[in-house]
Design goal:
Layout: H1 9-12, H2 15-21, E1 29-33, E2 36-42, E3 48-54, E4 61-66, E5 68-69, E6 74-79, E7 87-94, E8 97-101, E9 116-117, E10 142-146, H3 148-152, H4 182-189, E11 193-196, E12 200-202, E13 220-226, H5 237-253, E14 257-262, H6 273-277, H7 306-323, E15 327-330, H8 338-352, E16 358-361, E17 390-393, H9 395-402, H10 424-428, E18 446-448, H11 458-466, H12 477-491, E19 496-500, H13 520-523, H14 529-532, H15 534-548, H16 551-554, E20 564-567, E21 574-580, E22 590-598, E23 604-607, E24 613-617, E25 622-627, E26 632-635, E27 639-646
Parallel strand pairs: 10-11, 10-19, 11-14, 14-15, 15-16, 16-17, 17-18, 18-19
Antiparallel strand pairs: 1-2, 2-6, 3-4, 3-7, 5-6, 7-8, 7-9, 12-13, 20-21, 21-22, 22-27, 23-26, 24-25, 24-27
Helix pairs in contact: 7-8, 11-12, 12-15
């Protein structure tokens, strides 16, 4: 499809166009409540807009009506009746061509998102949903990244077959009878947030197809509708909405906040409702007129244009208001602008309270993308322009710990590259004193992690970099030790904490580095591994508890790094520092914390400063309290130790 009337991006993005057509109303879409239904679309080049109503997702047209033209390219029609449950689309005439399109602002849709659906959202709330709220925000944010289907596909999940891979699985509070799984497991693990891979309506899975399909879902169709393949019934478009709300309600009831992975940087294809409604406006083009492809997914949404930015802000707020979302992870945030990210944060802070909603993203893009003039892309080097609190995935810390994410053999400090150890002190301070190619305003902008859905799982990366002959399935003491050390390091760095689900039980995809459409069996969480790797799970649980009890490491203020003082060490490959753990007006058990990273193959003997110390974590246990009798401790090879100095 071409831009309408041969208009260039420059014209479509320009001031003149927006003075004429920018619409800031908050009533686009189909709004149905109290026995009234209003349809409103933004289509500035349309000569005519006709509404088609259907009683079913596949049925013939039931009624038709022509919309009236308003100012600013808006068209509307109102009905003095509730059309809840009725499906709809539009016939838009542009340059004498009749184009059928769904509604980009739709809050409901039918199977595979082909038709939009009128929904009186108040009727989709499960019991108690209107009153439910998120658990209180904790001092530390420990984010667990998970795919809805991975959570419960395994038969060992203990979830009834009909709920496996579905939103509903989150409402099953059972164990499989032998050991905790799913929700019970999550609750016991102690994470504060679950970040769910995309669950807006996406296009890569046929909702009418069989249950064996799998996709991560980074291909948006309907931004404001939940994905249908996770619902128990796709024939009725209200079921996906209700069951998605039930999932969020269940997570909240178990003390866990919910973060949504959002993909506003591109759409499933250019032939989207956006493009059909306003040809050319919503996408970036290269100089030769072809589509920009900074997403490596075929198109880039034109963030930076007023109606695109309005759409994204409205969409984010919709998910918070309607679904009680607690935060957003922005896919390829580098294709979005600093301006938009800061605006989203500002508006969420204003409406829901400062810092209530977590925002962070991938501070990069897959390739260059032509932004509007004067726009600043939200990439890593521009972290300093993002509002404090908007986080970036910190690949510097990630790669320092376990080695390059793309090169399977390349090690980091836990698997062979001890010479990089001096950088660990910088990572611990959230890169606040330089050492990386970006300048965070505070460690609140840093998301510390060593694995995510992209690239190899931590376990696979360690196996491939540490073993001559990879065996992914079985336990391996050396690799388990390296895994513990990796976790120990990022749990002792200032910043927010993030982990891929299953990192704590040796999750393996058998060396597959990009499992976005691999079989569900390869992707699923294998719950029996929580038993097989119980020592590793316990170590993570201990680190989570310990972290929450150390305000010196949880501090997100701009001066947090000043709490950290590097200690002189006598060995190359050893790094040690103390953290001032005092908080005025509050009691803490330890006034100071001492951290040691020993990346060498030898035991490291360290002299402590005066005081009464206890070991809180070492190579085998985290969150212990082991008295130190003399002021001397021995740190095992390739491991960390954390000590607390008891308040006098
Ligand atoms: Ca879908």
């Amino acid at each position: 499809m071409k831009n309408v009337k041969g208009m260039s991006d420059k014209v479509l993005a320009g001031r003149e166009f927006h003075e004429k057509y920018q619409y800031d109303g908050k009533d686009l879409g189909a709004i149905c409540k109290k026995g009234k239904t209003t349809f409103k679309v933004w289509s500035p080049f349309a000569q005519k807009v006709e509404l088609c109503l259907y009683k079913g997702n596949d049925s013939e047209v039931w009624r038709k009506a022509v919309l009236a033209q308003e100012d600013k390219g808006v068209w509307s029609i109102a009905f003095e009746e509730s059309l809840h449950g009725v499906y709809y689309d539009y016939l838009v005439v542009i340059e004498d061509e009749v184009i059928r399109t769904g509604d980009p602002y739709a809050v409901g849709c039918g199977c595979n998102g082909r038709r939009s659906m009128v929904v009186d959202l108040g009727l989709t709330n499960p019991p108690g949903f209107e009153e439910e709220t998120a658990p209180p925000l904790q001092e530390e944010q420990i984010i667990y990244e998970m795919h809805i289907k991975d959570f419960s596909s395994d038969e060992n999940s203990g979830v009834p077959k009909e709920y496996r891979g579905k939103y509903k699985a989150f409402t099953v509070d059972n164990t499989n009878g032998k050991y905790p799984t799913c929700m019970k497991y999550l609750r016991e693990l102690g994470v504060t947030h679950v970040q769910l891979l995309p669950f807006f309506d996406y296009g890569s899975v046929d909702e009418a197809g069989d249950e064996n399909q799998f996709n991560w879902g980074y291909d948006p169709l309907n931004y404001n509708v939940p994905e249908g393949s996770y619902a128990t019934d796709v024939a009725d478009g209200t079921v996906r909405i209700r069951e998605c709300k039930e999932m969020i309600q269940a997570l909240h009831a178990n003390g866990i906040r919910v973060i949504m992975d959002v993909v506003y940087n591109h759409t499933f294809s250019e032939d989207s409702w956006f493009q059909r409604m306003v040809p050319g406006y919503y996408y970036r083009h290269k100089k030769d007129g072809s589509l920009a492809d900074g997403s490596a997914c075929g198109n880039d949404v034109a963030v930076g244009r007023a109606m695109v930015d309005n759409y994204i802000v409205d969409s984010v707020k919709f998910w918070v208001r309607e679904y009680h979302m607690d935060g957003f992870r922005f896919d390829l945030m580098g294709l979005l602008t600093v301006d938009l990210m800061n605006r989203i944060q500002r508006e969420l802070d204003e409406e829901f309270g400062k810092g209530e909603k977590l925002l962070y993203g991938e501070p990069w893009s897959a390739a260059d993308s032509p932004m509007e003039e004067g726009m600043i892309p939200a990439v890593k080097t521009n972290t300093c322009h993002l509002n404090d609190g908007i986080g970036i995935f910190c690949d510097d810390t990630r790669d320092l710990i376990k080695g390059d994410a793309f090169l399977e053999k390349k090690p980091g400090v836990v698997n062979g590259a001890g010479e990089m150890a001096p950088l660990l002190i910088k990572a611990a301070k959230g890169w606040r004193d330089g050492g990386a190619a970006f300048c965070p305003k505070s460690c609140a902008q840093i998301i510390n992690y060593v694995s995510a859905h992209d690239n190899f799982t931590l376990w696979d990366k360690l196996i491939m970099s540490m073993c001559e002959e990879p065996n992914f399935l079985d336990r391996n003491q050396k690799v388990i030790a390296a895994n513990k050390f990796a976790a120990f390091i990022y749990f002792t760095c200032q910043g927010r904490l993030f982990m891929q689900a299953g990192e704590e039980f040796g999750r393996t995809k058998l060396g597959e580095g990009n499992s976005y459409c691999s079989p569900w069996e390869l992707n699923m969480l294998q719950w029996n591994r929580t038993v097989e790797f119980a020592d590793l799970v316990d170590y993570y649980k201990g680190l989570i508890l310990l972290r929450k009890s150390l305000p010196g490491l949880c501090d997100k203020s701009a001066s947090a790094a000043e709490r950290i003082r590097e200690k002189a060490v006598s060995e190359e490959g050893v790094v040690s520092f103390t953290v001032d753990n005092r908080v005025s007006g509050r009691k803490t058990s330890w006034e100071e914390v001492c951290v040691v990273y020993n990346t060498t193959g030898q035991e490291y003997s360290m002299l402590l400063e005066e005081g009464v110390w206890e070991i809180l974590a070492d190579d085998s246990t985290a969150n212990c309290r082991q008295a130190v009798n003399e002021l001397q401790v021995k740190v095992q090879p390739h491991s960390g130790m954390l000590l607390g100095k008891i308040v006098k």
